[in-house]
Amino acid sequence: MIVEYELLERVGIIRLNRPEARNAVNGAMAAAIEAAVDRLEDDDEAWAGVICANGPAFCAGADLKAIAAGETDLATERGGFAGVVDRTRNKPLIAAVEGPAVAGGTEIILACDLVVASTGAHFGIPEVKRSLIAAAGGLFRLPRVLPPSIAMELALTGADLSATEAHRHGMVNRLVEPGSALEKALELAAEINANAPLAVRASRRSILATRLLPDDEANTVVMEESRAVWRSEDFQEGPLAFIEKRPPVWKGR
User: Fold this and answer.
1) Which domain holds residue 146?
2) What is the pLDDT of residue 192?
3) Are residues 148 and 169 in the same domain?
4) Quick check: is 20 catalytic?
C-alpha cells in the first residue's frame, strides 16, 4: 500500500510508503493520505495521530517525475496538496520525521500540530530553485513557527534547515536520536492521550482559531469551546476522579 494505517494504543499511525521515490507525492499518494486522515478522524478508538514514513526520507515533496509526465493534480478537493495541508481536522496529528522533509514535505510537517524529528532530519522550501513557490502553506506557515527573517531566507535561497536549528527556533517540539522519531512521537501521543480527548480537541481548535484574533474575539471563541466541553460526560469524570484520588477514565463523550 502506498500509505499504511495502523491503530496502536489509541494512536492512528499514518505511514507514507513510497520509499523508492523518497515518498514524493503523486496523485495516488495524495488520495491515500486523505483516506488515512479520514480513518483517523472517523475512528473513535484513535484519539491522536502520528504521520511517519518508510525509507530514508520523510518526503521529498511533489513527485517531479509525475509532473513531467503530465500529472498535475497532486491535491484533493478537501485536503489540498498531499490530501492533508488544507484538511480540517479535530484530532492532534504529530509528525515523526527521519531524514529530509523538503518542499511539500516541509509543508506536510507545517500542517501537523507537533513535530518530533531526529537529528538527521532537515527541512526546507527549495521551490524557487525550480521556478516554483511553496504554495501549499509553506510561505505563510513557516513564518509562524520560525523567526520571520529565517523563514524569508529559506524561501528566497531555497536552503535547508537542520532539525537541530529547527528545534532551536521552536519549529520542532522534540529533537531525538536518529531512528527513534516514531517511538518518541508515540510517547508524546501517549502524554496527550492521558488527558480528556474532547478537552484536547477543543484546546487545539481554540489555538488555531484565535491566533490572529484580538483578545475579546479570541475569548468568545474559547468560551464557546469551553461550554461544549462542560456539557460532556468527561467533564463530570475529571473532578470525580480527582476527589476519589484515582486516574480518570475518559470516554471521549
Assistant:
1) 3-193
2) 98
3) yes
4) no
**Residue among 34, 98, 107, 225 flagged as catalytic:** 107
Examine the domain organization and report whether 20 and 41 are in the same domain.
Answer: yes
Active-site hit among 127, 187, 224, 244: 127
pLDDT of residue 143: 96
3-state SS, residue 238: helix
CA distance 160 to 104: 13
The confidence score (pLDDT) of residue 253 equals 82
35 and 128 co-located in one domain? yes
Identify whether 107 is a catalytic site residue: yes
Residue pLDDT, tens place only, 32-53: 999 999 999 999 999 999 999 9
Q: Do 224 and 179 share a structural domain?
A: no
CATH number, domain containing residue 47:
3.90.226.10
- Domain final residue, candidates 193, 217, 232: 193
Predicted local confidence at residue 244, as pLDDT = 81
Where is 207: in which H helix or E strand? Answer: helix 197-210
pLDDT of residue 209: 94
Single-letter amino acid code for the residue at 71: E
The CA distance from 138 to 197, in Å, is 29
